[in-house]
Design goal:
This protein is of the alpha/beta class. Helix content is 40%, strand content 14%. The protein has two domains: 17-109 and 118-249, Aspartate Aminotransferase, domain 2 (3-Layer(aba) Sandwich), CATH 3.40.640; 252-370, Aspartate Aminotransferase, domain 1, CATH 3.90.1150. Helix 7 links the parallel strand 4 and strand 5 (159-163). The chain binds pyridoxal-5'-phosphate. Pyridoxal-5'-phosphate binds at residues 65-67, 70, 91-92, 94-95, 137, 163, 165-166, 187, 189, 199, 201.
Length: 371
């Protein structure tokens, strides 16, 4: 009997991009190491310019990570203690942390069960006299319905901050995510669709006042050197990371297209299997940051894939409201119950621009056999 030994398929091959672009990434790192400019400087400024252009935004301000980016964007939009922020019940916990860290009120709302992003009707129903900002999350790389959310914000006098940590390269109505709302928060954590070799983040905006305020807040709240006019923080995009991100950014469009091809293979091979598959609504181009299927027996499917040497992820296993940091947030039961159901059933399949197409087909084969 001959056993065919099959390569294992990781959920995500983080080093693949650094292999593909090794000479250019390593040259960028050396250039910064030899420059003597280790905080701010031209590498950061150039990446900020490139990133703003990619996003179709007038301004980009680098910062230390995605959590800071969301927090800074909320602060620059005037959110403070007691202010309400409408946010999806189902998201990565950092979105909620940013609100709570400002002493603001988390106002969780249900997501659209098909797209898994904020449901504008649910958002409208949750607005109360404390609400100041609507904070949609382009989760898994699916764009939130920005047209309807912006109309809602306009009608109610609210600001819109977007958590775009999973939406590099996502487009909504032929426009990249990056300047629909008042401020858009980005993370360049290594596993993101545009990822650094460490932490990084940014906020994009068309509003020069918001850009200036965020720049000041990232620098101790100081306008000029050594004059802090408000209580800021220290949150910087590292020039080493900026130099690497500038190299990778040139490949982002190609990489997102490769992700879409993998998503297309999954969609084709897994249709009619009983799995709930992600969809692409007209007028949207998801970046496919994650390819998330849903099934009542998610754990059994993950185990079968693991037996075949295939890695998967769960985004996310514990709803925000059940985590210790947010215990006590019990408003909007319906949204929280929905978050429970989502957490129990989601399964993220291997996805990335460097995942071979034949590997995606094998993932689908193993899943079909398991179903
Ligand atoms: C990754 C992520 C963040 C936080 O980014 P960090 O850089 O890890 O701080 C925030 N929101 C969402 C939706 C994310 O996926």
């Amino acid at each position: 009997m001959t056993a065919t030994l099959k390569r294992s398929i990781p959920f995500l091959d983080l080093a693949a991009a650094s292999r593909e672009l090794a000479p250019r990434i390593e040259a960028a790192l050396l250039r910064v190491a030899r420059s003597g400019q280790y905080i701010g400087g031209p590498e950061v400024a150039m990446f900020e310019t490139d990133w703003a252009a990619y996003c179709g935004a007038k301004h980009a301000v680098g910062c230390g990570n995605g959590l800071d980016a969301v927090t800074l964007a909320l602060r620059a939009c005037g959110v403070g203690p007691g202010d309400g922020v409408i946010v999806p019940a189902h998201t990565f916990v950092a979105t909620w942390h940013a609100i709570a860290a400002l002493g603001a009120r988390v106002q969780p709302v249900a997501v659209d069960p098909v797209t898994m992003v904020m449901d504008p009707k649910a958002a409208a129903a949750a607005i109360d006299s404390t609400t100041r900002v609507i904070l949609p999350v382009h989760l898994y790389g699916q764009p939130a319905p920005m047209d309807r959310l912006l109309a809602l914000a306009r009608d109610t006098g609210l600001k819109v901050v977007e958590d775009a940590a999973q939406a590099h390269g996502t487009r909504f109505r032929d426009r990249p995510i990056g300047a629909h709302g008042d401020a858009v928060a980005w993370s360049f954590y290594p596993a993101k669709t545009l990822g650094a070799l460490g932490d990084g983040g940014a906020v994009t905006t068309d509003d020069p006042k918001i850009a200036d305020r965020i720049r000041r807040l990232t620098n101790y709240g100081a306008t000029a050197k050594y004059d802090a006019v408000e209580l800021g923080i220290n949150s910087r995009l590292d020039p080493l990371q900026a130099a690497v991100l500038a190299v990778k950014l040139r490949h982002l469009t190609t990489w997102v297209a490769r992700r879409a091809r993998i998503a297309g293979i999954y969609a084709e091979e897994l249709a009619g299997t009983g799995l709930v598959l992600p969809v692409t609504l007209p007028g949207t181009d998801p970046s496919w940051h994650l390819y998330v299927v849903r099934h009542a027996h998610r754990d059994r499917l993950a185990a079968r894939l693991a037996d075949a040497g295939i890695g998967t992820g769960i985004h996310y296993p514990i709803p925000c409201y059940r985590q210790g940091a947010h215990r006590g947030i019990g408003i909007n039961r319906q949204a929280l119950t929905q978050a429970d159901r989502i957490s129990e059933t989601v399964l993220s399949l291997p996805m990335g621009p460097h995942l071979p197409e034949e590997d995606a087909r094998r993932v689908a084969d193993v899943l079909r056999a398991a179903l």
